[in-house]
Amino acid sequence: MNAPTEFARAVCPHDCPDTCAMRVTVENGRAIKVVGDPDHPPTQGVLCTKVSRYPERVHHPKRLTTPLKRVGRKGEGQFEPISWEEAFALAAPRLSEITKREPQALLPYSYAGTMGLVQGDSIAQRFFHKLGASRLDRTICAAAGAAGLKYTYGASIGMHTEFFEESELILIWGANPIASNLHFWTRAQEAKRRGARLVAIDPYRSLTAEKCHQHIALRPGTDAAFALGMMHVLIVEDLLDHAYIAEHTLGFDELKMRALAYPPSRAAQICGVEAHEIVELARLYGKTRKSAVRLNYGMQRVRGGGNATRAIACLPSLTGAWRDRAGGLLLSSSGWAPVDTHALQRPDLIPGWPASQPRVVNMNAIGDALLHAGDAKFGPKIEAIIVYNSNPVAVAPDSERVAAGFARDDLFTIVLEHFQTDTADYADLLLPATTQLEHFDLHKSYGHTYVMVNEPAIPPVGDALPNTEIFRGIARSMGLQEPALYESDEEVARTALRWNDPTVDGTNWDSLKKAGWLKLKLPDAPFANGGFRTPSGKCEFSSPRLAAEGADPVPDYLPPHESADGAPELAARYPLAMISPPARNFLNSSFVNVESLRSTEGEPHLDIHPADAALRNIGEGDIVRVYNDRGSMQVRARVTERAREGVVVGLSIWWKKLAPDGRNANQVTSQALTDLGGSATFYDCLVEVARA
Length: 692
Ligand SMILES: Nc1nc2c(c(=O)[nH]1)N[C@H]1C(S)=C(S)[C@@H](COP(=O)(O)OP(=O)(O)OC[C@H]3O[C@@H](n4cnc5c(=O)[nH]c(N)nc54)[C@H](O)[C@@H]3O)O[C@H]1N2
Ligand SMILES: Nc1nc2c(c(=O)[nH]1)N[C@H]1C(S)=C(S)[C@@H](COP(=O)(O)OP(=O)(O)OC[C@H]3O[C@@H](n4cnc5c(=O)[nH]c(N)nc54)[C@H](O)[C@@H]3O)O[C@H]1N2
Ligand code: SF4
Ligand SMILES: [Mo]
Prior knowledge:
Layout: E1 5-11, E2 21-27, E3 30-36, H1 49-52, H2 54-58, E4 68-70, E5 79-81, H3 84-101, E6 106-110, H4 123-131, E7 135-137, H5 143-152, E8 169-173, H6 177-180, H7 182-193, E9 197-201, E10 214-216, H8 223-236, H9 242-248, E11 249-250, H10 252-260, H11 264-271, H12 275-287, E12 291-295, H13 305-319, E13 328-330, H14 341-345, E14 360-362, H15 366-371, E15 384-388, H16 392-395, H17 399-406, E16 412-417, E17 429-432, E18 441-443, E19 450-454, H18 467-477, H19 489-494, H20 509-515, E20 517-519, E21 539-540, H21 544-548, H22 568-573, E22 576-579, H23 595-601, E23 605-608, H24 610-615, E24 623-628, E25 631-639, E26 647-649, E27 686-691
Parallel strand pairs: 6-15, 7-14, 8-9, 8-12, 9-10, 11-21, 12-13, 15-16, 16-17, 22-26, 23-25
Antiparallel strand pairs: 1-2, 2-3, 4-5, 4-17, 18-19, 19-20, 22-27, 24-25, 24-27
Helix pairs in contact: 3-18, 5-13, 8-10, 8-11, 8-12, 8-13, 11-12
The structure holds ligand MGD (2 copies), iron/sulfur cluster and molybdenum atom.
Molybdenum atom is lined by residues 15, 141.
């Protein structure tokens, strides 16, 4: 007899702007197929290749199915199975002992393994807050861009993805949508069919750049200079919307002064492009009514990432592109959703809140933090860390130090995971977590404007538990009495939105749950009549808040930490700028262990320009050593003009233990931070390359 087939609705949980709706086919409690939901307008029935393979990941033979206790040395990855009772009985006394003595000696480490509001930061945050644990600054990805938008538009808000298909000119800037924002690419293709011009601004000829009409390959970290050069042209050739500037912007005179210091010749010299590329693009941009910018996070992983975001974000307000719904800029739409972060995370549970607040540790400097002995400035030494929704030993910069920190014998480490990742190898306790198909969640998106509900499709695989339930279990074993720790997942989800916000348009939890998603009610052209969310309500070319913080109020070009301009002595020793953007078939370090996807990527590569390769006597297919003072890795060279001269590209993020030399790109990246937001600077990294 055939098993009954069931269909369930789910949401892709991954850190991707598309936040697709999925339909899951279930037989005998197993997910056998997932497809894109044809009824969800942003998804249009299509999932990317990676997530089409989701059942392969969920039912992977190496899924963690039982709690594990370390038996070997840290990092060796030797464990023995234990029960949940034993796991909680091991965790609770150790965490109690440490936090009673010094709450801040406990640190959470998490990011966006799931973007769900419930399995992300609800019960977990409440738990850490209740204990008074150190707080984590979750800045590994988007913080510089988010700060840039906050100081310019007031929040992470911008154009609607769907209206890009009506645009006449699209600048795809620091973005590789074919790999990392597929459903935007569909819109851009449609615009192209209707006659739009697509221009990629990217140091690398990515899968996307090669399909655009034009590709401008600037040096990494020079985007602010490029945008200021464009502004120079817009100003001197008077391609401005004076009425829009007068009504809806603040600080035009200051911005004009700044832009006039960047004539195209100077900007071109900084960016390593031809002056005419800047001039022609600025003219086209200024003269096209429906001009749109798809900015993405690839351009802000450098020292000046916040200022660069600000500079680019000023462009549509100079030309008045916002007047049309197919004009403007989109970096993130996440700020549109009326999420009640306070209700979800309950910072008021912090003992002494709001007067006293625990110290904040920036996740990008986790290596240094774990190796710090503690002092008055840093605060107490970190004695315990709980990692969930993240794989820091693979993804955090300056990996040599990250691994050394996690290898500390006196550090108590709990990891909640689906798989035995590079980080899991260092756990004292490794706890099996459910995947999206096994738990409940609520999602917003940073690429579209729907809020979506994820219902479990199958029972938990093995003894896996949702993150929320694992934290409830630890809390219960520690004897914590706070009721907020024991709310159910659905109770948490109910509190996650500000239901009286006009964008929710009167919907309530029950109807959202029944419908599966709701589209936020927003104007088509969000800033056609101003309405920015800054204190002035205007697009702030000059930011009074930045001035009050003692920072430069007007966007400027800041040379990368590691560049000939920023550090000439270093550049003499390490002349090549390395960037390590995402590979198409991985999602950060997720999916690297899915064999069919890893075999499509093949092996770790380094793309190097023929001139740079010739100088070093490197041939196609040679194994090369990529190195700087922080570390080294070995990869296979691809000699190709996809990488511009002076730049090498290593698509990422490999699991170290699945790479031939046990290392990955983060061996050489640095813990230095960006100008605004305290973000990571993965693409601000000088190296040298030699034949191995
Ligand atoms: N397939 C796949 N999709 C993903 C991910 C993944 O790992 N794989 N990761 C997800 C996550 S977490 C994020 S944050 C997004 C990231 O996706 P994007 O925001 O698109 O950012 P990146 O892929 O980091 O970089 C995009 C492009 O920026 C270029 N770039 C690098 N440095 C610079 C620079 O200084 N200036 C300019 N103009 N361009 C530069 C890179 O060469 C790359 O082609 O994608 C998400 N989607
Ligand atoms: N060199 C280099 N490094 C980079 C980048 C780069 O471009 N170059 N990109 C950076 C960026 S943009 C980002 S966002 C970060 C991403 O870094 P991370 O957020 O650490 O992303 P992943 O590597 O995908 O790891 C997420 C982990 O969470 C686990 N997970 C997923 N869902 C759940 C769940 O429900 N419960 C639990 N307990 N675990 C779960 C997955 O199995 C996976 O191992 O990496 C950064 N690192
Ligand atoms: S990773 Fe992105 S494109 Fe792929 S299914 Fe998930 S949301 Fe959609
Ligand atoms: Mo990211």
